[in-house]
Amino acid sequence: MGVLLPLASAEATGLPDTIDRIRPSIVGVGTFQYTRRPQSQFMGTGFVVADGRHILTNAHVVPKRMDIDAENREYLAIFTGRGNNAKSHPVKEIARDEEHDISVLRLEEGKLPAMAFGADDSAREGEEYAFTGYPIGMVIGLYPVTARGIISAITPIIEPVYTSRQLNPALIRRLKDQYGVLQLDATAYPGNSGSPVYHPETGAVIGIINKVFVKETKEMVIEKPSGITYAIPIKFAKDLLRANKIEY
């Protein structure tokens, strides 16, 4: 399957130009309820892909259907715009990969500019990448924030454990299917969960920031968890899209 490049220019540009191009593709993810104050509840970041109607984010960011108060008109939403002029758009979760903590959402109406994907396993240790998202949510309005850093390591999702006391059911499940994750030397915050990690010149996405799932797995045996930022390689998101017949 070919990789469409709706936002990535054939000619590489600098990070400021790349941010201008990809900014319309970065969205907040949460719920909206007319009678609630505040009406919008932010849960994480997402980014638009494929045909402009699909959004990728972390699965842990998306509330389960049973947790949404549909009787009081609460709905799953993405948030676009800037500052205090953010708009909510209804979405549905159409696919979920719990193993890699990835969710695919679909817009009920309309389209947004989509980001391009990088090649599978294209990231190398020492290369510099950027990520854009909403580290503090919508506390002071919807303002995307960009950080940059190098891929400091590509490490297994599970670190070795040495005693049975360090094992729990979640860790045992993940031990059965190891895969590598990207470790960055940049700082991300909870609101960054679901942010795209992309090439600073082309805007091609190579990973998805994950602030909960990976840290719980890799740092389960550490008394004081680190401030390290991890990302899930984008190939697992591509697999999920293909499995659900979503062309990109």
Question: What does it look like?
Answer:
By secondary structure, the chain is mainly beta. It folds into two domains: 15-116, Thrombin, subunit H, CATH 2.40.10.10; 128-239, Beta Barrel (Thrombin, subunit H). Helices cover 12% and strands 34% of the residues. The chain contains four helices and twelve strands, in the order H-E-E-E-E-E-E-E-E-H-E-E-E-H-E-H. The strands form two sheets. The protein has a six-stranded antiparallel barrel. It has a six-stranded antiparallel β-barrel with strand order 7-8-9-12-11-10. Strand 1 (26-33) and strand 2 (40-49) form a beta hairpin. The chain is globular and about 50 Å long. The N and C termini lie close together (8 Å). Residues 1-5 and 218-225 have low confidence and may be disordered.
Which descriptors apply to this entry?
248 residues; Thrombin, subunit H; 2 domains; 6-stranded antiparallel β-barrel
Write down the CATH class of the largest domain: Mainly Beta
Q: What do we call the CATH homologous superfamily of the largest domain?
A: Trypsin-like serine proteases
* Count of the separate structural domains: 2
Task: Tally the beta strands.
Answer: 12
Q: What Rg is obtained from the alpha carbons, in whole angstroms?
A: 18 Å
The biggest sheet, with number of strands, parallel, antiparallel or mixed sense and barrel status, is: 6 strands, antiparallel, barrel
The number of distinct helices, counting runs of at least 4 residues, comes to 4
| CATH topology (level 3) name of the largest domain | Thrombin, subunit H
Would you tell me the structural class of the helices and strands? mainly beta
Tell me the fraction of residues in β-strands, as a range. Answer: 25-35%
Order of helices and strands: HEEEEEEEEHEEEHEH
What is the 3D shape?
globular
Distance between the termini: 8 Å
Query: What order do the strands of the largest sheet run in, or round the barrel if closed?
Result: 1-2-3-6-5-4
Unreliable segments of 5+ consecutive residues: 1-5, 218-225
**Helix proportion range:** 10-25%
CATH architecture of the largest domain: Beta Barrel
Question: Averaged pLDDT, please?
Answer: 85
